[in-house]
Records
---
Amino acid sequence: MTSVEPGGSEVNDTDAGYVDGNALAGPLSEVFAVDVTTATSRCANCGCTGPLARLRVYKHAPGLVARCQQCGSVMLRATRTRDAVWLDMSGAVSLAIPVGET
Amino acid sequence: MAFISRGFHGRRPSAGTKLPPGQYETTGFPVLSAGPTPRIRKDDWQLSVTTETGKRHVWDWAGLMALPADSPTVDLHCVTKWSKFGTQWQGVSLDVLLADVETSAEHVLVTSYGGYTTNVPLADLVDGKAWIAYGYEGGDLAPEHGGPARLLVPHLYLWKSAKWVSGIELRQSDVPGFWETAGYHNYGDPWREQRYQGD
Amino acid sequence: MARAAVPGRLGDRLRWRIAEVAGRRVESATAVTLTLEIPDWPGHLAGQHVDVRLTAEDGYSTQRSYSIASASNGRSLDLTVQRTSGGEVSPYLVDELVPGDQLELRGPVGGWFVWRQQQTEPVLLVAGGSGLVPLMCMIRTREAAGSRTPFRLLYAVRSPSDLLYGSELRQGAPGLDTTYLYSREALKDSARPPGRITPEDLARGGWPPDFEPTCYVCGPTAFVEKTAAYLVLLGHAPERVRTERFG
């Protein structure tokens, strides 16, 4: 896997422009103590559910934009500013994060 | 102390003198997108200007082409830190489109095919500072760069120059757009390095 | 699924670490493997990746993600990097770095596109080009664990000279079947003419859907898109098809 941070594509990146939600793992590891790409989310627009790892992530942008793999609507946005990570999950109804049994 | 990668320079020409703070020059034209590229046929294309009273002015492609065009040459500054100098565009000045529009609004929410939005003060779209651009370097504007037509507001960071523009909403109050609600600066002046909220 | 805590992520937020290049091995005309030593490396799961950050003297910085190629050994890890012509980062990693150099690195990350040795169902690996790297990590992890879980690998690659890990794959392992799908130029005695991956390739070299294999597909976005669609068409449940697309 190779990928690109905000700033534009490598010259011959001519593919569809998105990668899998797996690519959220690194940036979100800055805020979450567990891997959230295995968490199950529900799309606020179409209601489908699945792990964040299966979302379509557009990363050639000022932030990461994760879209529903079914309907394409924005489910999650993550932006890294100088001193904060902005996380917008208004496109996701819920997020079930596996943490192990108590 | 910050870590330095020995021998790493990046794919960048030597810095010019016109660079805003924190920017690097590129000679390519990186494609940034937050979603799939909309494919809008010119036959189906429309641009609307809506005032705060709800009055709607609409142009189709032929209507846009019938308006007097400008050929601005401008520098682009992307918030992801690349700048590109001397880009040549063809398009219609917002002054032309707004000439017959009566408004006392100060704020604009720009909307795009595909759902993107961005907010700009009306004062930044008039007096020769902004265009609806449909030509780039002598050809049609490619879909990945916002064709058939995009907003071009080169004195602000490029995220304000909405690709695939479909609507100009004049509003009494300011409504932050897609990136402005996700940590980016509300105004976005590259020369004052207004990248993020609080800058 | 991932009910236990993910090894390597013991409840800490990740920070950037400094890794030292301990070895460099040429894999093909355009790819090298870098062996990185990282103090206190927590180990990793097969299929996980790391983020690499490069910073120039004037402060310019950029980062990329790379899959880990080696089985976890607690000390070091291998990254195989394919040079992208005109690229910004890969030519630096492939051509410039020498043993003794340092890199900034964050990881391991990713808990979805991973294979764990507790999994007992058959596994289908489908690689497009350098998409082989995380799948090779799964093959090596299986071998290091002495696992008998049956693996099948379909490796789509331009030509025999573009193969990564050629001799290691030729040597093989018990319970691992490998099929090569050359897209441009095949070996002279090959029964399959050169061409892109087809549903027949997947039916012939993969597992019947009844066996309920887990399928891991990694490669360029267009390749993964097509392959995943074929697998579902052949009757594999979508949730059993795990994908990793390059940007």
---
Amino acid sequence: MAVTSEVSQDGTVLVITITGRFDFGAHQDFRNAYERVNAKPERYEVNLGEATYLDSSALGMLLLLRDHAGGESAKVKLTNSSADVGKILAISNFDKLFEIEKPGHNG
Amino acid sequence: MANAERPALSVLIADDNMTDRMLLAGIVRRQGHHVLQAGNGQEAVKVFELMRPQLVLLDAMMPVMDGFEAARQIKAIAGDELVPIIFLTSLAEEEALVRCVEAGGDDFLAKPYNHVVLGAKITAMERVRRLQATVLEQRDLLARHHGHLLNEQRVAKAVFDQVAHSGCLSAANIRYLQSPYALFNGDLLLAAYTPSGDMHVMLGDFTGHGLPAAVGAMPLAEVFYGMAAKGYGLGETLREMNAKLKRILPVDMFCCATLLNVSARRRVLEVWNGGMPDGYLQPLAGQRLLLPSRHLPLGILQRPAFDATLETFAFNPGDRVFLLSDGVIDTANADDQLFGTQRLQSVFDHNKDPRRLFEDIREALSDFRGESRDDVSMVQIEATAPGSLPASGLIFSDSGQLTPMDWSVCFEFRGQTLRRYNPLPFLLQLLLEVQGLRDQSGALYTVLTELYSNALEHGVLGLDSALKKDGEGFTRYYALRQQRLEALEQGLVSVGLEIQPLPEGGGRLCIRVSDSGSGFDVAAKARGGDNAYAGRGIRLIRELSRHAEWADDGRSARVEFTWASQA
């Protein structure tokens, strides 16, 4: 499990990338990824392309991020989720809270 | 070299050669330790028992009892505590050194003694001894904490069981499987009758484990049972649960849940699934239907955004509904493959005896991953023919002496109210102020429900119950109901209640329900004919009340209940 984050050049987007299992073990790293940035991004993107697994505490962490990013007005996009990860997001109907972008044509 | 930082140890030296012993004792003393002495193995064991030194220096070859045997006995007496034993030996042969270690020796020191080496060895041994002592201390501390935790869980579970047992999980048509400590896995299974004999069932799964999950379960169960007993519909219970969890839970905690309303009387199954795996509806004859997650879990959305829309299915005697926790399909085998829904469905397909379904699933799981697991929750409910109504789940704290006995009220519920509000629990609460009616609360609630839904569905919404002639029409009926209700602007249902004492004691309740609809042919409805879905309501009202009549082309119903005087 690894969490990395990167602010876009213009400082408006924070991209958080999860590698491996996204579960409670990632809790602190995931929070650090958006709490310890100096910029105040307008949008957030969580890249799940390299995430192999996602459990309910990871869903909870996504809710925390959404809350941090402004709750109802938050702009958080979940990208590149694999079929398995996508299924978990779908069961929880997280598409009602987050913009979920399926892997693109190059994926 | 005196060593202030090094703590003084008590060191036992056992050697039959007094010169050697005195020499060694001198060295050890000079290093700041206390010395105890023994002339052979047996004496060494005795001194050890009495004085409990922290370190033992043992000559291997001694009369009466040799060092090897003494080491064995000292280690046995010391038990878990580490008492380092250093063998004093002139034995050079490897085999003898091996024997020293086998007998429990931790190190050895060759004669003649070098005080620098001895000092270093004592220091090293003391370090190991303290490490071991710390480990033991922490082990005991952990064991104590674990004991506390188990005890707290036991108490919490006992309290929770008091809440959970007010339900009807023991009903004959429910089968369920749950680990006794499921509560601490975040799993929650609740079932309760409503006053009209419908059954509400909830299978929930909190994020997280342990105490936080259990803490969230408690208020949820209270809401579930309280509202079911008062006759609230599933949608209202859902909204209340969601609002409560949203209020009390931290942002990253929520509760996936499937809720069911099983109505034997209406032969209907209502389903709400937020974040749980697919449920399954298996009709007695016909295709298995999926009950997939359509909603966000409970405790995430704010009140206005929360969607309590239920899906409605026909549910006839012999039909079964099955729910399960994610533990089943998420079970992984050694190759990290998941059990998945395909395998689950195949278990369904091969299941011959519905009563053995759980066992079949558990067997398939244990075949799949090579060991069984006991942390999955499953529940199966079979549709039954409507039976007798359950006793009221409400507990009254008043004595009933202050019963209001001569009054009437009339309510008019108009467009916007009809769209959103269910007045039945409120009306029932009002009527149960009258003590004489409390014994009949089930019948009362059923009749009120029938009268109200007739007025609303057939009257105000103009729905034709003939539509419910088959499963498909049935689904269409409820979709249409939802659609028309949402678009409702006009229309009203009026409910009048009148309580009068009777001269011979006891009293009479008269319920009048009328609506703004276009009326219907009561006689034709009541005959019902072959149509299993229509007309049952009217027959039921007639059966449960003392007297029922319709006027104004079915637009107005008048129903009577009476009760005898109570001693």
---
Amino acid sequence: MKKLLMASAAGLALVGAASAEEIKMGISLGFTGPLESMAGPMAQGAELAFKEVSDSGLLLGGDTIVPVRSDSTCIDAAAATAGVERLITVEKVNGIVGGMCSGEATASLQNVAMPNGVVMISPSATSPALSALEDNGLFFRTAPSDARQGEVMADIILEHGINSVAVTYTNNDYGKGLADSFASAFEAKGGTVTINAAHDDGKADYSAEVGALAAAGGDALVIAGYVDQGGSGVLRGALDTGAFDTFAFPDGMVGQKLVDDFGSEIDGSFGQNPASGDAGRDRFLELASAAGFDGTSAYAAEAYDAAALMMLAMQAAGSTDPAVWKDKVMDVANAPGEKILPGELAKALEILKNGGDVDYVGGASVEMIGGGESAGSFREVTFENGEMKVVGYR
Amino acid sequence: MDILNAFVALLNYVMIPATAYGAQLALGALGVTLVYGILRFSNFAHGDTMAFGTAMVILATWGLQALGVSAGPLPTALLALPLGIAATALLVLGTDRTVYRFYRREKAAPVVMVMVSVGVMFVMNGLTRFVIGVDEIRFDDGVRFLISAREFKQATGLSEGLALRGTQVLTVVTAGLMVWALFWFLNHTRTGKSMRAYSDNEDLALLSGIDPERVVAVTWIIAAALATTAGTLYGLDKAFKAFNYFHLLLPIFAASIVGGLGNPLGAIAGGFLIAYSEVSITYAFKKVLGYLAPEGWEPEGLVQLLSTEYKFAVSFAILVVVLLFRPTGIFKGKSV
């Protein structure tokens, strides 16, 4: 009995000591599931920012950050919710980088994070539906909404002199959101959408989809899908039957795999994906390669930014309580203030400590608009002679 | 009125893709129906047997390509096919020895066998991924297009293109040859006749001295050959991805049940019926009708009966109707 008492006393002492100096932060990403290849570098990006701050010893009273990972699976909302619940109720985190995909992020935000008053900053959920979501000021994202991508894509297509397109999208929150926002933007700018049809991923045959798209016609085909899923299937079918010669690819399709698989068959097509051409991105890539992971992997920079914003907001608010620091996220992300690039978090903490103001730029040119989402900068690419060429940023 | 363009559009987007897809389904359904007819259970592992067989063919194809062997205008995979069939036959014979034989001796109920095959499906699924990975693999070489859409337009001056891929012709021709060989084997050889006898009446067949283990082994080898060929043709025509073969299982089962489980002829008819209904009922007839309609009468809407998301619903609606009115399938199969 005596031993037990001593052991529990020692345990209590340990817990007490730990909570005074260590801040736990959650990382809820899809480590297994359809985007598992992206989740690793994203988590490493977030942990890189946490480590940078811990090492600086400048956060609040020299606090250190302990990141806790949780698997959101990207497609299973129940699993993601359970994971976030564990982060909040068991690990007692003060903020969460995540979720990864729009549907799962919405579910865990509404079911767990909002009732418990914990902030979530998603690096990669891009559905336009999240902009209008009632979030009590607890949800932010460092990735641009697809509503913005829809606008950018509409501009790019019209600038190519194409006024009528067929649209096919992958049948989920991402695909439908992007296709709808693109269609309304394109029609508002005077273009015509001949058909806006879904395709399901992982199907055996896409002849039916290609047939319907071809029958509707149009000067180009917009494929709002995934390059390693049905998007490639539809593209292959459209190329083989000669239904379309020109294609417009949003972020789910633009990647090295597209070039590897289709080569010069897609010459003359074009696309765009979120990426910034600023100095911040180069700085982040250097940091990432020094830390031993691939910083060019999609949304890794956004994950770093999400983690950095949380800690800067804590410093600005002088508190680790999400209910307090949630109001500071927009302040540290936007002007006025000293511009902060990746690797300069110590400097930012110092400025905030002395009552100054910072404008966090980070690896993905963060500029928060509206209800707390990135304005977003996009990279426009074209495909020529079997290669992907960057045309510019917008 | 422009009948020629309308016909070419229909040919290009409905008839050719549906025929190739139908041939792939028919070969798959033949394997399912053969196992059902002789071993008396629905083999859910058939889709993943196809995936495994194709993976073996791909490995052999890479080997042949490394050696510099090619089949000229035909895909190298055709040369690798026998190796793939052999490897797959070994796998299914091994599975039969270690798993199915036990339940056969127990005289397990068909539903137990079905559950066993679901287990085998998951194991094969994992095995294929371990061997070749989960990524999409393209392994077609040789001549890709017999007629390409652009050349066809230039040559004929029509506004509609017609594309005919080498793999599509190859699929239909190979499927035809396989079906002919299977029928010849079942009708004219001693082993084929003993298989049919075993299928018709097991006890009578045993009394007349037919070795059941031999019949079972031959059935598995033929099923492996059909699965590997179907899988390889599908992979050549589209692309190989282990997960897609799992999805292929649904239309294959629909095809064999619609045709009549256990009836080889029904499997072929079912395959084409499912493929044509999937492609044509969800096809938007705007273009075709636009060519056929008199000036000024072209339709403005898509003239689409159902959106393409519902293409699977079409196959299953047919399946339900057939089961309601002809429970044994269109061609009289065994009752399910």
---
Amino acid sequence: MKNFNRIVTRELSVVFRSQSEFVYPLAFFIMVTSMFPLAVTPEPAQLAFIAPGVIWVAALLSLLLSLNAFYQSDFQDGSLEQMLLAGVSGSLIILAKAFANWIVTGLPLVLIAPIIGVLLNLELQANMIAMLALLIGTPSLCLIGAIGINLTVGLRNGGVLLTLLVLPLFIPILIFGASAVEAASIGKNYSGQLAILAAILILSLMLAPFAAAAAMKISID
Amino acid sequence: MWNWFFQLASPKWFYTIARKVTPWLSVLMYSLMLAGLVLGLIFSPADYQQGNTVRIMYIHIPAAYMSMMIYVIMAVAGAIGLVWRMKMAHIVSVSCASIGAMFTALALLTGAIWGKPTWGTYWVWDARLTSELILLFLYLGFMALHSAYDDKKAADKASAVLALVGVVNIPIIHFSVEWWNTLHQGATLSKLEKPSMDTSMLWPLLIMIVAFKLYFVVTLFHKIRGEILLREKQASWVKKLVADSKQ
Amino acid sequence: MELISSEFNSDNLIEITNLTVIRSDFPVFSPVNFSLGAGQAMQIRGTNGAGKTTLLRAICGLCHSLEGEISWNDEVITPAHQNFYQSLLYIGHALGLKPKLTIEQNLSFFQQLRFELDSQLIQEAMQAFGIAELYDEYVAKLSAGQKRRVSLCRIITEPVPLWILDEPLVALDVDGQQWMLDICNQHLERGGILLITSHQPINGIHNLRELTLS
């Protein structure tokens, strides 16, 4: 547990030194979502209709973008292997890094989502649910993403491959996340979707660190 | 008791056995496939709603069935390779991928062809077709990852981890897509559903399923033999084999 | 100057039996056998590409496709071998330093993973390597030689018996190299074990054995 805190603190101090890591995905999120009114229609009712999907797809992609910055440098500068050699277990390293990843990328998305919701004409209730769904869903994205990035981090053209590997695994979260927002916007019950998102989070917490740690050791070899 | 398990782990043993068994399996496979096709295309009745279009089912359903099964086999073989560090298991796992992807593509293609007369369009975001499409992505991801690594051993391990992650996810993806489908389209499009199938249609279907399984085994053996020769090219028995075949 | 204060267990023993690493079906080097007890040192030699780095990484457990056996104090090493990883310090080509953190942050992070924080020891180590005045400097601003010195500070801030150093003298100036050799000798006198690679011949480490990879 102590080592968990230390790794998280170290990750956060690296990020806050340069800030680009946590500004870029956020800027990406805002810009992509603001492309949709331009591309589809500025008509309020239609915007509200596509808003849940737009918010979730953009969140998915900006988290995907953040992964590389979070794992690549640690892999290349030898920090990962030094942590392993200090006897820290691989899954603890992954858990700590995924947590830091979420604090830096996921949490800002959750906080900025209501503003995007207003821009896309989402009403208050649906907007709050969008925030809640992102709050439960984005940590799973960070954990599943950790598997993908650790499989590809040692490869030369890992970036596109990462997308190919990880996006299919994101689909359930996308479906239930967007559906929760949609249900809320038409006044239906959304608790089922949120419960499933929570179940996926628990499952990811239990399994993803081990898979990602195995992937990390293969990449380091 | 464990003897056969370790024999299975020897590429040379597997190669010789596969070479002996393949012709027999091929004969069996071709006769079953012929029987299934003749029964299905000629002797089975046309559907009272869909007419003769329903006959594509004899390809579509077995292909869809195989596409899921092969992914599971691929993942289990990968897991055995990871846990027991068994070379043969990785070879099996890797050889499964392209065959599985082929069956998935076949299921998608026949599904689309079936969809045109039934739904009036080639593609509908039907739960099964969508699941098949995602499965195809998973297969492509596996193959892309395996080819991206320079070192074969690292490639084997990395893709085995991916297959395991995929196999845990497939039921979740499947469930979420089913759920999403009923939410958006209702149950109106589940025309592929055949709750009560006439025995004259069931038999050819069952025969085709078995024939497709045999086809998988035969192709898998071919692929495995190729992969063994490629990987064991330093081994003396492979060199001898190549020298003998040249004469 | 005495830097290493702790005495190490005189029973410590690392044994390498028939070790080789397989890359693309070929062994990188012919099987290696040796053992090092307390106070013993060995230099791994070999041409470029002979597998010196690979051998060191294999001993650290960072290579997976290896054949043969590594044991520490008569126990075969597995990935979960806490005892071994508590006793090991590996410094390779990738130094594990974060450019965006200060020297002190980098060193104390690694120290705290295994030991209690000891700021004074970190200060002393930096003093010894001549980088004390850079205490609050970000690693990004350092030269290659200074970065190397920072990573080598860890041999003092993390007192462990088994040092595995891959080309530690690279990028160090003449004074730096001399310090390094002195410290290695102190380490050996205290019962430490040293495994080192270097392109140039190392003069000055007592009883240094040599192993040439082929």
